[in-house]
Structures are given as structure tokens and as C-alpha cells.
């Protein structure tokens, strides 16, 4: 990314304010303007598809993607000519907008010092980007719509209302980060549990089995186990066992002197080793 411009808050904020909401149709590739700024920006992809270049990273984006851009971080949105129009909402603010004690600060992480977020902040889990789920998207669409109307209307006390909305939005962001972190932490366990079941099936494929019994080995519900097994292997548990039996029968025909199950590495069937390595 080229050096780009550095935008100053005074270029965007109304006199005496430190917040602004901007709805923007992003440029087609080649017309983007990489920039940094001396304030914090929360970027929400409201519609369309395209790309977001942040530092040296390029993200493919679509509706529901949310980015936290700290001060002095260069970034730019853009889209391909064939992409649907890429529309973003950008919330520009200084931390002091929500808490006067933070007026000297520009960094988003200074909010950890505010009493406003002491119960919702999770150390180490704030990330640059977040993919909102369908429910979170509905909540953000509604909340940002309220903020836009309040900002443009400028009715008495609008700054206090905007401040309350921003606090709500950031708390919802923190919940999203926590949700994603929890999912990331669960993933290794899911992988290891399914691998254990595959090893079991590789050595007990002659025995009749019940799906409920396999699920008990993982402590997952039967329905969730079935879903996870198929997502992981690309087949149902029954299909996997049938394939193991066929492979073992073929092997025994080719080498009848070899003991049953000998030299049978787990997860070898049809590239399952490669499938699992990417889970």
C-alpha cells in the first residue's frame, strides 16, 4: 500500500465535536485512496462486495464485515467493476467522545481504561476485523440507522444519545469478538474428538455401531456429532465405516497373510488426512 494521506479529525468533525458517521459508496479498483487518520474508525460493510486493504493485508469483504481501524493505520476500500456497489458506514471518533477522562488519547485500546467498558472488555481479544452473524447484522443495521438519524437531526441532547448508541455498539462488538474467540478455542477440540472417533472406527469397523454411541465418545449431541462428522470428513459415519470395510477387504484379498488391520494408519481413506489437517 502506498503511503497515502493522513486525515485529521478537524477535517471531518463539526466544531466542538469528536464524532461523525459517514455513509460512503466505495471506489472501483484504481480509484481508491489509501489513508490513515488521527482518530479511530469503525467501518461496517452495509452492502455489496469488494476488498479492504489494511496495512499489508487485503481482505475480501461483503455485507456484515466490520473493521476496527486504529489511528495511524493505513487502509482503503475498493471493489472490482463487476462487484455489486460496495457501501460502507464509517464511524469516526476520538475515545474522549464517550468518556471525558480519555480526552488526551487517540488509541482505541485506551477505552480499556474507561469505567464504561470494565465489565465487557476482554483483554487480548480485540481484533482488526470481525464477521457479524445474521442476528448481529440486524442489530447493527438498526443501531447504525438510529445513529445516522440522530447525527443528522441534531435535536437537543443528540450528542448524549449518540454517546449511548456508541457505547452499545462497542459492547456488541466486544460480544462478537468473544464469540469468535470462543469458536476458535473450540475448534481444536472438535478436530481431536473426530480424530479419536476415526481411530476407533479404523480398528472396530467389523463391529456393529450406533450413532448415539459414537456421539457419547465425544460428549456431543447425536445431531451435532453427525453434522460435525460430515463437515470434517465429507461423509456420514456409516459411509465412512463402509469405505473402511471395503478398503480392508481389498487389502486382505491382495495380501491374505497380513493380519487384520495391520499397517492401517488412521484417516488414510480418500485423503481424510488432508481434510482433517485443514479443520
UniProtKB/TrEMBL annotation:
Domain of life: Bacteria
PANTHER family per the UniProt record, alphabetical: ARAC-FAMILY TRANSCRIPTIONAL REGULATOR, HTH-TYPE TRANSCRIPTIONAL ACTIVATOR RHAS
Gene3D superfamilies in UniProt: Homeodomain-like (1.10.10.60), Jelly Rolls (2.60.120.10)
Domain HTH araC/xylS-type: 195-257
PROSITE patterns the record matches: HTH_ARAC_FAMILY_2
Swiss-Prot/TrEMBL keywords: DNA-binding, Transcription, Transcription regulation
One MF term in the entry's GO annotations: DNA-binding transcription factor activity
Official protein name in the record: AraC family transcriptional regulator
Keyword Transcription carried by entry: yes
SUPFAM superfamilies linked to this entry: Homeodomain-like, Regulatory protein AraC
Amino acid at each position: 500500500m502506498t503511503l497515502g494521506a493522513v486525515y485529521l479529525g478537524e477535517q471531518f468533525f463539526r466544531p466542538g465535536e469528536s464524532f461523525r458517521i459517514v455513509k460512503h459508496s466505495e471506489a472501483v479498483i484504481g480509484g481508491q485512496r489509501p489513508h490513515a487518520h488521527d482518530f479511530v474508525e469503525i467501518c461496517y460493510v452495509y452492502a455489496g462486495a469488494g476488498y479492504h486493504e489494511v496495512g499489508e493485508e487485503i481482505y475480501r469483504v461483503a455485507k456484515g464485515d466490520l473493521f476496527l481501524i486504529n489511528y495511524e493505520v493505513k487502509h482503503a476500500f475498493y471493489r472490482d467493476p463487476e462487484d455489486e456497489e460496495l457501501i460502507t458506514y464509517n464511524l469516526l471518533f476520538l475515545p474522549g467522545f464517550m468518556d471525558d477522562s480519555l480526552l488526551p488519547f487517540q488509541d482505541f485500546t485506551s477505552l480499556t481504561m474507561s469505567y464504561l467498558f470494565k465489565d465487557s472488555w476482554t483483554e487480548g481479544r480485540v481484533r482488526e476485523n470481525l464477521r457479524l452473524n445474521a442476528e448481529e447484522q440486524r442489530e447493527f443495521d438498526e443501531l447504525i440507522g438510529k445513529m445516522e438519524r440522530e447525527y443528522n437531526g441534531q435535536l437537543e441532547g443528540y450528542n448524549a444519545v449518540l454517546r449511548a448508541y456508541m457505547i452499545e455498539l462497542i459492547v456488541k462488538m466486544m460480544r462478537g469478538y468473544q464469540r469468535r474467540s470462543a469458536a476458535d478455542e473450540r475448534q481444536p477440540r472438535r478436530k481431536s474428538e473426530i480424530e479419536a472417533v476415526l481411530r476407533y472406527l479404523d480398528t472396530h469397523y467389523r463391529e456393529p455401531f450406533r450413532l448415539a454411541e459414537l456421539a457419547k465418545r465425544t460428549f456431543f449431541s447425536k445431531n451435532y456429532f453427525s453434522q460435525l462428522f460430515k463437515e470434517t470428513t465429507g461423509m456420514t459415519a456409516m459411509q465412512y465405516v463402509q469405505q473402511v470395510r471395503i478398503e480392508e477387504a481389498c487389502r486382505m484379498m491382495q495380501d491374505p497373510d497380513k493380519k487384520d488391520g495391520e499397517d492401517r494408519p488412521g484417516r488414510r481413506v480418500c485423503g481424510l488426512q488432508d481434510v482433517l489437517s485443514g479443520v
